[in-house]
Design a protein that fits this description.
The chain is of the alpha/beta class. It has eight helices and eight strands. The strands form two sheets. It has a five-stranded parallel β-sheet with strand order 4-5-6-7-8, with helices on one face. The model has no long low-confidence stretch (mean pLDDT 94).
């Protein structure tokens, strides 16, 4: 089996509700998504997608996905898409770094492998684990009252874990945390996601002001070192996923 063609589509995805995060400094009302189709000489087509959160969230941007695929596609034509490791080594040699570009092509190759073998990807990744997956309700930055309404929207749809976007103002963030934590029933929980918006001083002031609540804080500061120092001086757990 060989890759015979790579096709790229641009799709604009409007959001049902405008979304603010990182204390409101990041705002989105639509997302620019790149859809990739990889065709093979045996008639199997695989699909992948690359959809960064705009250009201001992380070191990734939508036009970069499409420019990178244009750079990589000639290197992949004629290769066997089922040889995932070899595909990735080829991409790394042709374009070091930029994993957000390669993920869409990687996704399409896995799709082909699953279709060729007749197996779901969970089996190809190591085997199905029969444990429930708990989805999280993403709550955009807003006033405490607006955030409670977003939580209620999620509760009506069965969500019991809520990721609340904060990070604008120390006093307002404390009010948001206290309002949300007091509102939630005992069987539900909240994570407060700052998206790296706080200075260390702000993180310490907020987190040490809400010691009466069990809170998880996600990405409080810009760097790992700053977040580590904050963790040493607070009692709350910290989640990192953007470093």
């Amino acid at each position: 089996m060989k890759i015979s063609r790579i096709t790229v589509y641009q799709v604009t995805l409007p959001l049902e509700h405008p979304y603010r995060l990182s204390g409101g400094r990041l705002y989105f009302d639509k997302l620019d998504s790149t859809i990739v189709a990889i065709d093979t000489d045996e008639g199997i087509r695989g699909w992948g997608e690359g959809c960064p959160w705009g250009s201001t969230y992380l070191p990734a941007f939508p036009l970069g996905v499409r420019a990178g695929i244009e750079e990589l596609a000639p290197q992949l034509i004629g290769l066997d898409p089922r040889r995932i490791d070899f595909i990735y080594r080829t991409m790394d040699l042709a374009l070091p770094g930029h994993p957000y570009i390669k993920s869409a092509l990687d996704m399409a190759c896995w799709d082909i492998l699953g279709k060729a073998t007749g197996l779901p990807l969970c089996e190809l990744f190591g085997g199905r684990i029969d444990e429930p997956v708990i989805p999280q309700n993403s709550v955009p930055t807003g006033t405490p009252e607006e955030m409670i309404k977003s939580i209620q929207w999620g509760q009506e749809r069965g969500y019991v874990v809520h990721t609340c976007k904060i990070g604008a103002d120390v006093a307002l963030d404390i009010e948001r945390i206290e309002t949300v934590s007091s509102y939630l029933p005992g069987n539900e929980s909240a994570t407060f996601d700052v998206n790296r918006a706080w200075l260390m001083d702000e993180a310490l002031r907020v987190m040490n002001a809400v010691k009466d609540y069990v809170c998880y804080f996600e990405e409080p500061c810009e760097t790992y070192e700053e977040s580590l120092q904050v963790r040493r001086l607070t009692s709350h757990p910290i989640i990192l996923d953007e470093k």
